[in-house]
Design a protein that fits this description.
elongated; 5 helices; Chitinase A, domain 3
Length: 297
């Protein structure tokens, strides 16, 4: 697991040789502080080979562990050792955090690797496993971090798609041979069918099966499942149906529609952005879209 965090720090540009040595020195100093913290609060904690301290509550455990491509839903509270709040999810509004397991390393990777579905834990991470020498907001550089986590659910891709079908009203959707779920929302049987090679204008909204924290143009933070929306195809940037320029599931759905029709679709990750994902979408992500054919010529 240490190699995962080493990669994370390198990718953030935190680990020059000097910085790494400084982090190690700070970690050694912090260990005494952590042990004092544990003793004062009468906690019984274990220490991993990486240097993380933890304790777990397994009473609610289902025994289910995460595999690559599973979605982990969890609540967390992150603080400094003096109790200063860094960040947290909102349990009252059930605004949980979700991560696709095995796609990238985050500050939650090591704690989550020690939890099964339904379990809770308290994790204390020295700077080398947290934010290193960086500082931001109320988090000083080389800070030791406490993270309290409860794993709400671990969902396979098939389970995520089943959840999305309920969330987006697609229980009776058609299942195509490729694995796409397809449901027409607006039908125009007398309109012209989209044909391969036509210049098509398509409006769309794309969503996850869960909400993610986002920031609007005014700087306000909010939760929303929507990861993108807009129009594909225009005079300046044409989209030709069946050209293969879009993800496979989107292309397939366009070819099933007539001009003016609208549909909702759920794509398994193999028909979406695959195992790699992109900057906005994690790898292994099944996705929901609403698409409408504006014109085709």
């Amino acid at each position: 697991m240490k190699s995962i965090y080493l990669f994370l720090f390198i990718s953030l540009g935190l680990l020059s040789g000097c910085a790494f040595n400084e982090i190690n020195q700070q970690t050694e100093q912090a260990d005494a502080e952590i042990q004092k913290y544990i003793k004062v609060r009468n906690l019984t904690m274990q220490k991993t080979a990486d240097g993380m301290y933890f304790l777990k509550d397994t009473k609610g455990s289902t025994g289910k562990t995460a595999s690559t491509s599973d979605l982990i839903k969890f609540h967390y509270k992150m603080t400094l050792l003096d109790g200063s709040l860094i960040d947290s999810t909102n349990r009252v509004l059930n605004q949980f955090k979700a991560e696709v397991w095995g796609t990238k390393a985050t500050i939650f990777t090591l704690p989550l690797s020690n939890l099964k579905e339904g379990e809770s834990g308290v994790f204390i991470l020295p700077a080398s496993l947290a934010f290193g020498g960086s500082s931001f907001g109320n988090v000083p550089s080389y800070s030791t971090i406490r993270v309290d986590i409860t794993v709400i659910a671990i969902r396979t891709e098939a389970e995520q798609i089943a959840d999305m079908k309920v969330t987006y009203g697609m229980e009776n959707a058609e299942l195509t041979t490729s694995g796409m779920f397809f449901k027409k929302l607006v039908e125009k049987p007398s309109a012209a069918q989209v044909l391969v090679g036509q210049n098509v204008v398509v409006s769309y909204v794309g969503k996850f099966g869960y909400g993610v924290l986002q920031q609007d143009s005014a700087g306000k933070w909010f939760y929303s499942p929507t990861f993108g929306s807009g129009t594909i195809g225009s005079a300046s940037s044409a989209y030709y149906a069946g050209s293969g320029n879009l993800i496979a599931g989107f292309e397939e759905a366009v070819m099933k529609l007539r001009i003016g029709e609208k549909a909702s679709i759920i794509l398994p990750y193999k028909l979406a952005y695959g195992t790699a994902g992109n900057t906005a979408i994690p790898g292994y992500s099944p996705l929901y879209f609403e698409i409408e054919i504006i014109s085709a010529q």
